[in-house]
Protein: Diguanylate cyclase
Organism: Leucothrix arctica
Amino acid sequence: ASKKNGSNGFMLFDETMRESMALRNETLRDLKLALPKGQFELYYQPIYNLLTGEITKAEALIRWNHPERGMIRPDLFIQLSEESGMINELGEWIFHEAATQVAEWRAKYAPHLQVSINTSPIQYRDKGFDIKNWCAHLESLGLSGQALIVEITEGLLMESSSAVKAKLWGLRDAGIEVAIDDFGTGYSSLSYLKKFHIDYLKIDQSFVSNLSAHSEDFVLCEAITVMAHKLGCTVVAEGIETEEQSLLLKEAGCDYGQGYLFSRPIPASEFSALLSNVSRQSKVCQLASHA
Ligand code: C2E
Ligand code: MG
Ligand code: MG
Ligand code: MG
């Protein structure tokens, strides 16, 4: 087949198309079985208060343990699950899993810890999605809405559908905080930040990765932070990989940060160990200060 392909560009394209369609169909087939087979797992990336160094939040990031292909990252299946409508069911699983986990961590280690979950715009268009069910579940775990942060895309704020708006207000009414993910990469009207009482802006990592003292990106981070604070929003910087980026973001006024410099996303068991170490250390500190 390769000989034929070599002599004809169109055929090569055709072949590649067919292969990628086959892979897509295969992935879709496996994806539909992944939930009943228990192949999804949430990893957690700690979010640090940049001033105190404390871990106050964790972002839940989904992983797919594929039996043959190994660990698959969300970039390779979230869009597919959106297109197939599967994201609605998956989104419910993510919520339940994260809520159960934060209940355990709050009880054992960190009573004020918040877990941030990513949500897809598709979920807000689903008639079956009812915040009341989320509230009931949180209540059954003894949690207030404050235990969760819901990350949405900038674009969602701009959707005019009243059903979507009602769901956003439903989150607010439940006391669940709302964060705009990847802020600065999409379209948004700044007035919406105020209108919906958005709690957090997450500065996209594309602004962080080339950060240096006199860069345009530094000016942007600083401007976003000033504006956010004036609108009553707190700022989280994503994708911090170097000490220099961390210092500059602190200088720009960012409140929280996450990134490989501090920790990669890790399985829940590792996150438990991290929290357990921290809470033991802070108990030691308390003892020392009382002595
Ligand atoms: P996101 O929500 O913006 O998540 C941040 C992504 O950056 C994560 O990739 C994280 O692993 C990665 N990251 C964190 N720190 C660093 C760093 O210092 N350097 C670099 N280069 N990357 C870093 P991940 O886990 O592959 O997720 C990719 C995207 O998939 C997420 O972007 C989010 O949009 C989506 N996603 C992940 N989990 C879920 C989920 O449970 N539900 C939905 N709807 N979407 C999800
Ligand atoms: Mg996110
Ligand atoms: Mg992001
Ligand atoms: Mg992203």
Observations:
- The chain has 13 helices and ten strands.
- Confidence is low (pLDDT under 50) at residues 1-5.
